[in-house]
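A reminder before we start the practical. When you read a complex entry, don't treat the lines as separate problems. The point of joint prediction is that each chain is placed relative to the others, so the output describes one connected object in space. Small molecules and nucleic acid strands, if listed, are placed in the same frame. In the example below there are two entries. Take a minute to note the order of the lines before looking further.
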Amino acid sequence: MGQITLRNVKKSFGEVDVIPSLDLTIENGEFVVFVGPSGCGKSTLLRLIAGLEDASGGSIEIDGVDATSLPPTKRGLAMVFQSYALYPHMSVRKNIAFPLKMAGMSAADAASKVEAAAKVLNLGDYLDRRPGQLSGGQRQRVAIGRAIVREPAAFLFDEPLSNLDAALRVSMRQEISELHQTLKTTMVYVTHDQVEAMTMADKIVVLHAGRIEQVGSPLDLYRSPVNTFVAGFIGSPKMNFIEGAEAEKHNAAMLGVRPEHIDIVEDGPWQGTIGLSEHLGSDTFLKVLVDGIGTLNVRGTGEVGLHTGDKVSLAPQPGKLHRFGKDGKALS
Amino acid sequence: MATLNSRRAARLMISPAVLLLLAWMVVPLAMTIYFSMLRYNLLMPGMESWAGFDNYRWFLTDPAFFAAIGNTMKLVLGVLFITTVGGVLLALLLDQPFWGQGIVRVLVIAPFFVMPTVSALVWKNMFLNPVNGLFAHAAKALGLQPYDFLSHAPLASIIGIVAWQWLPFATLILLTALQSLDREQMDAAEMDGASPLQRFGYITLPHLGRSITVVILIQTIFLLSVFAEILVTTNGGPGTASTNLTYLVYAQSLLSFDVGMGSAGGVVAVILANIVAIFLMRMIGKNLER
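Here is the predicted structure of the whole assembly.
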């Protein structure tokens, strides 16, 4: 079980409203990712769910029970922190067993649970080391181990991968996704990295200044962002935005087109000069200065034989243009 | 950076300071050892004669010596206990957010800036005095007999005075340690179901371990040589009830005018202090390794 419902949840620190008012339902077994730029209130929201912060208003229900004023322990949730928050003076074994010890479980039961968790997370060889002797990825696994032994209703992850290097991040990302498939427990994951959001989530919640901009599956957000913020935030490289005469031709205040939806053609509507070309092998990223529009980022598949200074002709793929009104909202 | 050349230059440049410090230490030590081997009484100047280890034998068999060792230990341990326990509690209190935090923190640290002689005098005359002291007034107000602290509980009173002086030091070190505790660790422990008391026992106290050992080490070094507080308040008395090793050395050489015996006592004190220091360093080394 692990259904979390937020109703009208508010949070303010003094005069500052971090979260003005927010409604959200997280279904049982879902992998939900809160994504947004730094300072958008996503970590605060997670801490509200965890009970580490008190809500200034509204209610939080976990599995149909009002948990708004319950202390963190009673909510049956487990959290993995950005800094891992391992206890430095305890061995890995004691770290993982700590929540069980606090719950008053017998040493023998706790030991078997720790062994089981260590097996799942490949930590068997490290159980008697201290956190200081482990690498970043191993520490992260210990933190996850400490969370899973509690068999929580839901896992909360607060930017767990941001302290890891790029390669490790990709593999840990996959491990967490696999863990979710094995355990089938609700997971709430906070990140500022849209790639993590796109790859892991069943449902993405895009937050901006404490407000939910859009909720949906990764591809929903990619295909039909409701406003320019979501359009710009989801997708990498970022969507190109075009204003002015070109946008007015399409009856919009702003046009958006993703770099991968612009084709290099013989004779297209947009003519330009390549300002910068990045050849990655699998992809080629071009920065094209288009006459009358400005700079457009274009993504070519595979190796493209174009270089800085070359003239190109571009055409947006039909049906892949996003039109936005003056208020930034998408026009249908 | 550290080439052979620059290292040689560095050694050359610090050598005057090192030699000066060495001389500063070695000359008095050598003279003390030399005096401790003489029959040297200030009442009979010019009559010095070689005594060998006689001074040591007399000093170590003097009943006052055992009393002084006992008092020194009680003083050091008593003050250490009060300051570490009190320091942890005060640091926890000062770590809470409250109005006027800055001023309160400065005030808490203030006793450390008062000279030992002055604070001992203030305590003796304004607090512990059985006629005019604040405690005597308080006792009278409650209809009780005023208690003469310095004559009935001289060592305990001195422990109190010294602890009052060193409490701010311990508090300050422990407060900074407390502030370096990772908030997320506390949050994690809270999520893991630890009560506030358990969080203190399992997270805060182990985190403070290092700082507590540092406090104990530094304080022990200074507390072994407490002198001014005893001189000003009790003069080591009544009898030898509040005489520690330092005060005994002073009493031998300047009250009994026996410089030889005093010097022997000084050498014994140095040896004992070194034994304590080695013991402490081992303990600290073990604690700091983690």
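Discuss with your neighbour: The mean pLDDT of chain A is 89. What might explain this?
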